[in-house]
Structures are given as structure tokens and as C-alpha cells.
Amino acid sequence: LQKLIHLLQATDDPLIQEQALITLSNSAAFSVNQDIIRNLDGLSIIGGMLSDCIPKVKEKALNALNNLSMNIKNQEEIQVYITQVCRNVESAPLNSDLQLAGLRLLTNMSVTSDYHHKMINSIPCCFHLLSEGTERTQIQVLKVLVNLSANPAMTRHLLRAQV
């Protein structure tokens, strides 16, 4: 894991970055690895990949963060990327793998109400995706909206959103 994280930092080759991110994402399926990746500063390194200009690299970084977000301590670190993830979802091509990867991460990050306030500005986008997206996109958006709607503090924002 340490070598993969160092490899992510050391290379600019998108194909190598994708493969390293896929391997880290798969490794994050095991809870012990989630802690190791966090302790190796892997969350910030993977999070840094969200600003990459290559969509496939962003997508693989989102997938890795999604798997890593199953851990409360990891969520505390990943939450700093929520606004950027929301922007990626909004700017990604409609129904793209990149958009779905961002929505999956937002779903996990919205299970508790701790970070709902960081998603308020993306509520109109969610309704747009619900209207325009394919069934896969709609299902993922609904998961985010259901999580947000479980928080009474979000009621006003959900009802006032421009659709």
C-alpha cells in the first residue's frame, strides 16, 4: 500500500495512476487497509487526484475514496473534498462513469447528517439529474436525496431548490 501511494505521487502517467487507484480501491474493501491507507496519508494523496484533468483518473480516485469512506475516521478526512466532488458531479458529462462515481461517494458521505451542509448548493443539480439522467443516475441521485431528506435541517433547502 505504501508503494502504491508513493507511486501515485511519483508519476504523471495517467495509466499508472489509474491502475494504482484501482488497486488501492480494491484494497480498501478490507477495513484494516482503510486504516493503513489513512495513516500513510493516502486519503489526501487520492483526494489530490480529484483535481486531475483526466476524467478516468478522477473517476478512479472517486471510486477509491468511496471505498475508503466506509470508515468514520476516513470520512472525517474525506469530507474536505465534498464541495469538489459536488463540482465534479455537476460538470461531468450526464450519466458518465465519472458522475456516477461522484454520486456514489456523496451517497456514502450523506449517510449521517454530519456533512449535509456541504451538499446544499448541489441540491438543484441533484433534481436536474433526477429529471434528465438515466435510470442508473436517477437511482444514485435518489439515494443522496433520501439521505439528505432524513435530516430535518435540510427540509427547507430541499423544498426551496430551483428545479
TrEMBL record:
Residue ranges of every copy of the Armadillo repeat-containing domain listed in the record: 1-163
Entry membrane topology: Single-pass membrane protein
Annotated GO CC locations: mitochondrial outer membrane
Record keywords: Membrane, Mitochondrion, Mitochondrion outer membrane, Transmembrane, Transmembrane helix
Coiled-coil portions: none
Compartments in which it is found: Mitochondrion outer membrane
Matches recorded under Pfam families: Arm_2
Name listed for the protein in its UniProt record: ARM10 protein
Organism: Oceanodroma tethys (Wedge-rumped storm-petrel)
Species classification: Eukaryota, Metazoa, Chordata, Craniata, Vertebrata
